[in-house]
Amino acid sequence: MPIINVAILEGRTLEQKRKLVEEVTKVVCDVLGCGEDAVTITIEELAKENLAKGGKLFLDR
Amino acid sequence: MPIINVAILEGRTLEQKRKLVEEVTKVVCDVLGCGEDAVTITIEELAKENLAKGGKLFLDR
Amino acid sequence: MPIINVAILEGRTLEQKRKLVEEVTKVVCDVLGCGEDAVTITIEELAKENLAKGGKLFLDR
Amino acid sequence: MPIINVAILEGRTLEQKRKLVEEVTKVVCDVLGCGEDAVTITIEELAKENLAKGGKLFLDR
Amino acid sequence: MPIINVAILEGRTLEQKRKLVEEVTKVVCDVLGCGEDAVTITIEELAKENLAKGGKLFLDR
Amino acid sequence: MPIINVAILEGRTLEQKRKLVEEVTKVVCDVLGCGEDAVTITIEELAKENLAKGGKLFLDR
To answer: What does DSSP assign to residue E50?
Structure first.
């Protein structure tokens, strides 16, 4: 029953998201030995003003 | 001090959200024996292209 | 496909957890009109030294 | 490697977010003794209809 | 800057976790075109009494 | 109503956690102009085998 959340900067294409959930699901099931239907993935898109590293927003980096 | 996050597909009505937080708060307090003011709920709305099961986006299912 | 996370202070009984997931699932499905099998709940137990309100750990309140 | 998520009601200015990540990063590093580059912060903005306390949406309070 | 959280039932071996973070990082970078150092993964282990589906704890299924 | 989650490697002292929640609460309220009682903080402690960067567990770095 893996539940996976992927937080990324916004701006990815639909094709990238499609590929992302397909590939992540595959490797997770390979490693953990679970059926693909057991895997749930949520994608959390962050605006550049809502993600920071080193005390600086990505908007300002 | 329960903090509850409910992730759902976007598209629910305001009335459903109102009902959701009211009812969930009630049963949580019944079971745990806490005051309703102690319960915080966040609703996280997911677009169909940001939720996947079995390696497939809900957009494509 | 609701995914619900309930963060609570540790120390609840197994019976309370059983009741909690049963009741929360029921009301969520009533309000949103989804099948119960679609609901996933995770319980996150917090030690009193890992939860704070007003700048004070629950351990010290 | 602190990873910090700050959930707030939407409507904060860019200047507040800038200040927020700068100041939070500083105090976290002071207390934990880590380099500022090790700190990642995500800001999660909640609409008033997606946050509730005491069984009531902030929209209705 | 992908930040990935993988919630799984407890009981996986260290070798599975090692493999999991290695493989997930690889496919995420392939799809998104980011450097591997940009990927952070947290694993959240859930006891069977802290995960439920369909209103039933995994402990009771 | 800021809700803040701080994920850190396990092994911090109680004194560090006390200081952490006190100081973070203070700067968050300074910047956002909220009362300290409105701030909830959860600390999530990660074992070195449950946190990875660059495809490698912290246990192995």
So the answer is: S
